[in-house]
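Usage

Read records sequentially. Each one opens with the input sequence:
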Amino acid sequence: MKTLLNLPRRAFLVSGGAWIMAACLPARAQTPKRPIGIIGAGNIGGGVGSLWIKAGHPVMFSSRVPDELADMVAKLGPLAHAGTVAQALAFADVILVAVPYAALPQIGSDYAAQLKGKIVLDATNAVPTRDGAAIAKEADENGIGITTQKYLPGTHVVRAFNITGANVFCQGSEPA
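and closes with the structure output:
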């Protein structure tokens, strides 16, 4: 049996059903961009954060003095925010830590409850001349990832961005 479009009845019903299903399905939405908090807005934090903003992610840069970040945030546009560490932790479930390694024990102690369950992208490295010989030795002997996890318990630590110089992240973007 032929239909209006001169198609066999089965083909007409199948194609008609497909059109009806397509019309009823919601339009494919763009994947929402995940907010990201950054502890440390220097060369690495500022450079990587600016790239995330260019990719459409809202980013909160944190500092002990958030007002010092006003110029950087203004240059980066409406997806860039500045705040305290506590505000950055409340802002996002993904946190980039880009501070001197010696700051990790204090961050872990001060913000243990707020860090719990967060994904922490750890861009730190233990440098003896900057961070002190004791913590650098501990990281060297036990492994830096294990040592970071010790200082940031309850988090999901991922070592990232720590073997690449800050200049790579700033190419084609506003430096921090």
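Summary fields computed downstream for this record:
- Confidence is low (pLDDT under 50) at residues 172-176.
- The two ends are 71 Å apart (CA to CA).
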